[in-house]
Write a structure and sequence with these properties.
Helix content: 25-40%
CATH class: Alpha Beta
CATH superfamily: 4'-phosphopantetheinyl transferase domain
Number of helices: 4
Strand order of the largest sheet: 5-6-2-10
Distance between the termini: 11 Å
Structural class: alpha+beta
Length: 202
C-alpha cells in the first residue's frame, strides 16, 4: 500500500528557519521531492502539485512567486527540507571516509581550514580528521546551495570555520538526523532561530 504524506506547517516568521527530517525508506529522489512539495504546500496552503517550482541556471530550485525560500538535500534514506523567509541552503551526507582525504582537503579547503584539519588529525594528519573534513564539506555545500552558485564557485574560496561568514551568510551545524550523518544549514541572515520538525508518512 502506498503511503500518503501528512504535514501541518507551523507559522514561519522573519529570522526563522524550519528544518524537516524525512525518512525515505530507501534511496528515493522522487519520494524526497514529493515530501518537499507537500511541506511547501502546507506553508502556502496550496495543493502540492499546483506549486510552480523552477530552477536557476546553476540548478537551485525556487518558487516562482518567491513567497518563501527552501532547499532540499538527501543522502541514502534520509532527506532534509529547509524552509525560511530568506535564501537558505541545506546539505546532508551519510557517514563515510574519503579515500584521498589529503587531495580533497587541498582542493576544497582554505588555508585556515586546512591548518585546522592538520591539527585535528594530529599524528595521522588529514587522514585522521575524516569526520572534520566531512563536516567542512557539508557546510560548504550548504553555503553554495544557498547562494545558488553550486559547484561553480571554488570551494576553497568558501571558508566555513566560523558560523558568521563574511558575505552576510550564517552557516551552522544541524543535529545529526541519523547515526554518523553530518548536516548543515546556511541562511542569508545575521542570526536565525532554527527549529526541527519531522515529516510523517501516513
Amino acid at each position: 500500500m502506498s503511503q500518503r504524506p501528512s504535514v501541518t506547517a507551523p507559522g514561519l516568521g522573519a529570522g526563522e528557519v524550519h528544518v524537516w527530517t524525512v525518512q525515505l525508506g530507501g534511496r528515493d529522489r522522487q519520494r524526497a521531492r514529493q515530501a518537499m512539495r507537500t511541506i511547501l504546500g502546507a506553508y502556502l496552503q496550496a495543493p502540492p502539485d499546483s506549486l510552480e517550482i523552477d530552477t536557476t541556471a546553476a540548478g537551485k530550485p525556487y518558487l516562482a512567486d518567491d513567497r518563501i525560500h527552501f532547499n532540499l538535500s538527501h543522502s541514502r534514506d534520509v532527506a532534509l527540507v529547509a524552509v525560511a523567509t530568506a535564501p537558505v541552503g541545506v546539505d546532508l551526507e551519510h557517514p563515510r571516509e574519503f579515500r584521498a582525504a589529503e587531495q580533497l582537503a587541498r582542493r576544497i579547503c582554505s588555508e585556515r581550514e586546512y591548518a585546522s584539519l592538520q591539527r585535528a588529525g594530529g599524528d595521522r594528519g588529514i587522514a585522521g580528521a575524516q569526520l572534520q573534513l566531512l563536516r567542512l564539506w557539508v557546510r560548504k555545500e550548504a553555503v553554495v546551495k544557498g547562494t545558488g552558485e553550486g559547484l561553480v564557485r571554488p570551494l576553497d574560496e568558501v571558508d566555513v570555520l566560523d558560523d558568521a561568514l563574511a558575505d552576510g551568510w550564517l552557516c551552522i551545524d544541524l543535529p545529526r538526523p541519523a547515526a554518523g550523518f553530518q548536516a548543515a544549514l546556511a541562511v542569508l541572515a545575521s542570526a536565525a532561530t532554527v527549529s526541527q520538525h519531522h515529516f510523517v508518512w501516513e
